[in-house]
Amino acid sequence: YRRGQPLGELDGIPIAVKDNFNTAGIETTCASNMLKGYISPYNATVVQKLLDGGAVLLGKTNLDEFAMGSGSTDGVFGPVRNPWSYSRQYKEKIVPRSDSEPENSNWVITGGSSGGSAAAVSAFTCFAALGSDTGGSTRNPAAHCGVVGLKPTYGLISRHGLIPLVNSMDVPGILTRCVDDAAVVLGSLAGHDPKDSTTVQDIFQPFALPSLTDVSKLSIGIPKEYHAPGLSSEILAVWSKAADLFKNAGAKVVEVSLPHTHYSIVCYHVLCTAEVASNMARFDGLEYGHRSDMNKSTESMYAATRREGFSDVVRGRILSGNYFLLKQNYEDYFVKAQKVRRLIANDFVKVFGSGVDILLTPTTLSDAVPYVEFIKEDNRTRSTQDDILTQAANMAGLPAVNVPTALSGRGLPIGLQFIGRSFQEKQLLTVAKWFEKQVQFPMIHYLSYICEAAFFHPQRACKVSGSLKN
Amino acid sequence: MAARGCGGVWCRVLQRGPGGSCSASRPRRAVACNARGGAVPLGQSGLAPWAAVVGLEIHAQITSNSKLFSGSQVQFAAPPNSLVSFFDASLPGTLPVLNRRCVEATVMTGLALNCTINKKSLFDRKHYFYADLPAGYQITQQRVPIAVNGSLSYSLCKDNKMSQMVTKTVRIKQIQLEQDSGKSLHDDARSQTLIDLNRAGVGLMEVVMEPDMCCGEEAAAAVRELQLILQTLGSSQAIMAEGQLRVDANISVHHPGEPYGVRTEVKNINSIRFLAKAVDYEIQRQIKELENGGTVLNETRAFDSKLGCTVPMRDKEGKQDYRFMPEPNLPPLILYDAKSLPANVNHQQVVNIDWIHERLPDLPSVKRAKLVELYGILPEHSFTLVNEDGLMDFFEDVVKQTQMKPKKVIGWILSDLLSHLKQHSLTAKESPISSFLLADLLNLLENGDISSSAAKQGITAIHLKFSMWDSSSFQVFEELWKGEGKTPLEIVKEKQLELIQDQEELEQICQAVIDEREKEVMAIKGGNEKVINKLIGLVRKATRGRANPLLVKQILEKKLSE
C-alpha cells in the first residue's frame, strides 16, 4: 500500500467464503453444532491466496451442514433465502396462493450446498465468493441465483483447508457475476500446493479471456442422457435454444451419448457416504469441536458428542457409509461404485476423444422452488434429484461452469452448464464468455423496500462473521 | 536355503519348557520345530509331538527428522504434545503430505530384506475409534505395500553352544508404510485418560514375517538380525526399550501334517529376551490347553514381563471391522528405477530404487564374512562382534592401533572388555576404556613390558581368564576401567607393574616358593608335572603378576631338575 502498488488483481475486492473453508482466527462452523464456535488456527490455501492478493474477506457464508445438501436449507443456522425471491422480476409474477399466507412464504431456496456464497454474489454483497463443489454444490446454487459458478478441474486448486465432504471429488468452486471475473479469481487460486498432494505439479498460467467472435471451429456436444426425467419443459426449451444459438453461429452441434450417466447418482451415493463416514470419524470431541458432558466412558462420550454434534442428515450418511465399507459389503458396494465411476469418466474421455470440445447441458431440472415446497422431500431424495445433471463432472474430475441464461416464467434464473476437457479451463470459459454475451442475462432488480429486507433479514442470507481487513 | 537349518535342529528352550515363574510346575513337553520341508517328531515316548508355528509382525519406527505425513519433528521423550502439527491433531481440512525420507528408508529396508519393491504402491485408511488416533483412522498400506516377498537369514546356536551355529531363513511377506498412533495414559485413580500426540503420525515400517519360526529362540534371533539390519541401514534406530521396534507374535501349535492350529497374537513384548520367553510360554500354554481337552481362542494376549506369562487383553475383545478404504488424499506412490526414470525429472521429486540399491551399506552378514576373512577370527566371534552394539568398530579401532595380531586382540575384547561392559550394562561406545587405551595396553603386553598369559600361544580360554585375573595387564585394565584418564604406561609405572626383568630377583622368588612347598616339589619330582602350574601361580602371586610366566616356568624347571 505504501508503495502505491496493488497487492494483486483482487486488491480491495470484497469476497465471501463458504463456511467450510478454514479462516484463521475466524469461526469456521460448516453450519454444524459440531464446529459451532470452532476457530481455526490456519487459513485454507485458497483463503490465504485471496488475502495475499489483497481481497477483503467480508464474511463466511451459510451452507448445508458439512456441505451435505442441495438446498442450503439443512444447516444449524437455518436456510438461505434466494435473493431473487425479493426481486421485481419474481415478485411481479407470483400469484399469492391464498390471502391468508404470509407475504414472505413464497421465498425460494438458493440451491446448495454453497447457497450462502451464491446468494452473497447474487445480492451484490460481494464480487466473488468461494464455494465448494462435490456433486454440484457450486453450480446448482449458481443456477438458482443467476450467477456464474465454476467448478475447476480436480487437482487444479488446492483443497488444503477445505473441510472435506468427499476428498476424491471436492473442488473449491468460484462464484461470480460474470465469466471474466471467474477467470480472474481462478487465476489467483489455481496452481500446485505442496500441502495438497492431489494438486497437479504443472505451473498454471493465469489468463485473460479473449472475446470470441468466431465459434465455427467449435464442436458442441449435447449429451442425450441429460434429457433426464423431471427436466422441466422450460429448461428444455432454454437448452434447445442455446444449442440453436451455437448452431446458428456456425458451431458444430452434435448429439452425444454418455451411457453411464444414470448410474452416476447411485454410485455417488456409495462413494460419498463411504468417504463421509471416514472423514467424519475425526469429530470425536477430543481435540476440537463439540464435546458432550457425558463422561461415563470414552466411548459414551464419543457417542453422545456425535449424536449432539451431527444432524440426522450427517448421521444418516455416516451410517450408510460405514455399512458400505464393512468387509462383507466392500466388494459389492464400494469397489463396484469405483468401477462405475471409471466407466462414467471413460464416457467423457470417449466423447472428448471424438472431437467434441465442450458439452452443453442444463444445470438443474427446474428453477428454484419455494422453501415450503422444498422441505416436503427429505435431504436424500432432494440431493438425488438435484445433483443428477452436475454430479458426473465430479466423478470424472472435469471442469464445468454454470452460466445464467434466462429467466423462467416465474421470473427466476435458469442456468446452463458447460463441461470441458480436463485442465482446459481457458477454452471452457472462453466459450462460456461468448455464450454469456449472447444471452444477455438480466440484472436482478430489487423493489426498494424489499432490498432492505434482504440485506438485514434476521435469518441472514449471508452469515457475516468476518471482519474487514485493515 | 540352509538345508541344515531345516534338518532337525531342536529348540533347546522348548524342550526345557518356558523359563520364568509361570513355568515352574510345568512338565516338559516335546515340541518339534516347524521347519519348512517337514517337521520331525521328537519321538519321546507316550507324547504326541507338537509343532509350534510362529509368525511375527514387527513395527519399526523410521528414523527421520519429521513425521510420515507432516512436518512435525520426531523425537523421543519430548514434553507431551509439543511435537504436534495441525495434521497430527487431525484438524479439519488438513491433508497428508508424504515424507520422502520415510519412503527411501522403507525401500532401503525392503532391498536389504531381498524384497520385490512395488513400483506403485497405495495408501489405505484403517478405521477404528481410539483416543490416541485423532483422525479415527490410520493411514497404512493394506492393499499394495511398498515391498513384498522377501527373506531374512538369521543364525542361532544349537544347544547354546557358540561353536554350533545354524542358519535359518524366514520369508518376509511384506513391508508397509504406516502412521504411528499417539499414546494414551490411563489414570485409573481419577478415571481419566491423558493423550500425548507426539508419536501420532510418526512413520512406521511394518515388517510382516511368515510363520516360518518354531520357537522363542528362533523368533528372538530373527528379530535381532532384523534389528541389526535396520540399525546398519539407519532406517530405524530399532531400540525396543524406546518403542522404536515393537514385535507382535502370532503363535499356534499343531501336529505336523495337520492343519495349523488356532493362533493367538501376543503383544506388549518390549525386549528380545522377553520375546523368546513370551513365545515359548505361549506355545506351552497352548499345548497344555489342548492336551487338557481345551481349545485355543483366537485372541490377543499381552506378555506380562514380571510374571513371565501371557494374559488375555481385555480392550481388544470383540471383532473389529476396520472398514478399509483407499486414502483419497494421497496419489499412488510411484517409485522409479534407472530404466523407468523419466527424463528431465527433478531428482528431488522422485525415489530411484537403483540409486538406493547402489548405496546400501554392508549388511551384518557381509560384515561378519569380511571380519572372518580379514582378521582370521572364528565365525562365532564375528557374530559377537557384529551383534554387540558398537563392538565391531571398537575391535577394528584397537586392531588398527596395535601390533598385536587380531586373533589375540579378539580374546581381550570378547572375554575381558565385553564381560566388564555386560556387568555394567554398557555398550562398546560407552566403554570407559577407549580403543586407544586398550591398544596402548596391548602394545605394552606385546612388547613384553608387562605380563599376560595371553601372550602365550595355544592357551585355553579358562587359563586365559585365570591369567588375566592374575596378571598385571589385567590390573592395568582394571585401573583403566576406572577411567581416571591415565595411560596404561602411567598406571604401570605408578603401580610398579612392569615385568621383573631382573633374572636374579626372579630366581630368588622362585627359590623361596620351592622352599615353602615341599609337598608340591615332591609331587613334581614324583612325575606329576602338572603341579608345576601351581608353583608358577604362586610365583606370580608373590610378584603381583609382574613375572613372565614363561620365564618363571623355565626357572622352576631348571631349579627342580637340579
UniProtKB/TrEMBL annotation, chain A:
GO cellular component: glutamyl-tRNA(Gln) amidotransferase complex; mitochondrion
EC number per UniProt: 6.3.5.7
Positions of the Amidase domain: 4-88, 104-429
Gene Ontology terms for molecular function: ATP binding; glutaminyl-tRNA synthase (glutamine-hydrolyzing) activity
Organism per entry: Meleagris gallopavo
Top EC class, one word: ligase
Chain ranges passing through the membrane: none
Entry keywords, A to Z: ATP-binding, Ligase, Mitochondrion, Nucleotide-binding, Protein biosynthesis
Family indicated by similarity: Belongs to the amidase family. GatA subfamily.
InterPro entries: Amidase, Amidase_dom, AS_sf, GatA
Gene: QRSL1
Name of protein: Glutamyl-tRNA(Gln) amidotransferase subunit A, mitochondrial
Domain of life: Eukaryota
Function: Allows the formation of correctly charged Gln-tRNA(Gln) through the transamidation of misacylated Glu-tRNA(Gln) in the mitochondria. The reaction takes place in the presence of glutamine and ATP through an activated gamma-phospho-Glu-tRNA(Gln).
Automatic annotation (TrEMBL), chain B:
Keyword Ribosomal protein listed: no
Record field: catalytic activity: L-glutamyl-tRNA(Gln) + L-glutamine + ATP + H2O = L-glutaminyl-tRNA(Gln) + L-glutamate + ADP + phosphate + H(+); L-aspartyl-tRNA(Asn) + L-glutamine + ATP + H2O = L-asparaginyl-tRNA(Asn) + L-glutamate + ADP + phosphate + 2 H(+)
Recorded superkingdom: Eukaryota
Entry EC number(s): 6.3.5.-
GO molecular function, one term: glutaminyl-tRNA synthase (glutamine-hydrolyzing) activity
Pfam families: GatB_N, GatB_Yqey
Chief place where the protein resides: mitochondrion
Keywords: ATP-binding, Ligase, Mitochondrion, Nucleotide-binding, Protein biosynthesis
The Asn/Gln amidotransferase domain, residue ranges: 393-560
Residue runs in coiled coils: none
Biological processes per GO annotation: glutaminyl-tRNAGln biosynthesis via transamidation; mitochondrial translation
Subcellular location: Mitochondrion
GO cellular component, one term: glutamyl-tRNA(Gln) amidotransferase complex
Similarity section: Belongs to the GatB/GatE family. GatB subfamily.
Role summary: Allows the formation of correctly charged Gln-tRNA(Gln) through the transamidation of misacylated Glu-tRNA(Gln) in the mitochondria. The reaction takes place in the presence of glutamine and ATP through an activated gamma-phospho-Glu-tRNA(Gln).
Quaternary structure and interacting proteins, as annotated: Subunit of the heterotrimeric GatCAB amidotransferase (AdT) complex, composed of A (QRSL1), B (GATB) and C (GATC) subunits.
NCBIfam families associated with the record: gatB, PRK05477.1-2, PRK05477.1-4
Record protein name field: Glutamyl-tRNA(Gln) amidotransferase subunit B, mitochondrial
Provenance organism: Meleagris gallopavo (Wild turkey)
Name of the gene: GATB
